[in-house]
């Protein structure tokens, strides 16, 4: 079972009201995605060395309640869609202490080579595809 990504909010990530600036949520979900891969044994550096790059195609966020300086957030993440060329993730950013959902987000990504051309990762790197497939949410 994967653990949520835990992170304390820094002062520099907030505005004058000590509320996290909306631009930081993209960073939070990026950190959570890399943590998910690390927890799952997917070595992103090794993937890049093999010529596999995973650009972000789209990010959507729905803000529910403000996150403030000093809060600790927990980010639950799951792979909700996977094809041999693309995948998407869902995130729930929660207050680590209360469990209150502060933000929900989604992101979509492509598998591209070092020339930024999409390719079929299942065909070219079946072991990498299998690692992502193991993360695919089965509860839908």
Question: What's the short story on this structure?
Answer:
The protein is an alpha+beta fold and 140 residues long. The protein has helices spanning 24-39, 44-49, 121-124, 126-135, and strands at residues 5-8, 56-63, 72-82, 86-95, 101-110.
Question: Would you spell out the secondary-structure blueprint of this structure?
Answer:
Blueprint: E1 5-8, H1 24-39, H2 44-49, E2 56-63, E3 72-82, E4 86-95, E5 101-110, H3 121-124, H4 126-135
Antiparallel strand pairs: 1-3, 2-5, 3-4, 4-5
Question: What are its keywords?
Answer:
4 helices, five-stranded antiparallel beta sheet, alpha+beta, Thiol Ester Dehydrase, Chain A, 140 residues, elongated
């Amino acid at each position: 079972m994967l653990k949520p990504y835990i992170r304390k909010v820094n002062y520099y990530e907030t505005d004058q009201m000590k509320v996290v600036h909306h631009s930081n949520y993209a960073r939070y979900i990026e950190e959570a995605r890399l943590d998910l891969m690390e927890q799952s044994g997917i070595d992103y550096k090794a993937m890049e060395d093999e010529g596999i790059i995973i650009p972000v195609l789209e990010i959507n966020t729905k803000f529910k309640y403000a996150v403030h300086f000093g809060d600790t957030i927990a980010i639950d993440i799951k792979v909700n869609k996977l094809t041999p060329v693309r995948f998407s993730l869902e995130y729930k950013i929660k207050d680590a202490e209360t469990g209150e959902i502060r933000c929900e987000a989604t992101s979509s990504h492509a598998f591209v080579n070092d020339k930024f051309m999409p390719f079929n990762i299942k065909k070219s790197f079946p072991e990498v595809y299998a690692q992502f497939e193991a993360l695919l949410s089965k509860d839908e």
